[in-house]
Amino acid sequence: QVQLVESGGGLVQTGGSLRLSCAASGRTVSTYALGWFRQAPGKEREFVAAIMWSGGSTYYADSVKGRFTISRDNAKNTMYLQMNNLKAEDMAVYYCAATGARPRHRPLWYINYAEYDSWGQGTQVTVSS
Q: Residue 3 needs a FRET pair 20 to 30 A away by CA distance; which of 32, 57, 97, 119 works?
């Protein structure tokens, strides 16, 4: 089991930036991919970005492409989400998630929150106009 702890959320004005961090501990050697998801009040949890732990391939939701950057520091067992040009619609609780390696038969499996085994507690991002 992998334990995840997010940090870096807060209040920012429209157009501002924040960097979220996700520190992993426990059985991190089994981690295959990490992802960021977000959930706004009254809405379903949605995919934001994902990164493959070893190869570093990255994937983004269309709504954040070009504004958000996901990265990881393997030595620190930490994943980051740099968020620039924040908009009101980005306001949500952001969660990081981890999953191990196993057969995946569907393309774009990483956008499905059910594919992830471990979750952080979430960090609030508030965007004010």
A: 57
Name 93's Cβ contacts closer than 8 Å, sequence gap at least 6.
9, 38, 39, 40, 122, 123, 124, 125
Render pLDDT for 56-73 as a digit per residue (tens, 0 to 9). 899 999 999 999 999 999
pLDDT given for residue 93 in this prediction: 98
Which of 95, 108, 107, 116 has its CA nearest to residue 31? Answer: 116
Contact 45, 95 (CB under 8 A): yes
- CA-closest candidate to residue 86, choices 42, 7, 20: 20
| Helix/strand/coil for 52 | strand
Read off the tokens for 119. Answer: 């979750």
Q: Are 21 and 7 in contact (CB under 8 A)?
A: yes
41-57 average pLDDT score:
94
Percent of the chain surpassing pLDDT 90 = 83
For 55, 70, 78, 100, the CA distances from 108, given in Å and listed in that order, are: 16, 17, 23, 16
Residue that has been written with the tokens 């992802």 in this structure: 35
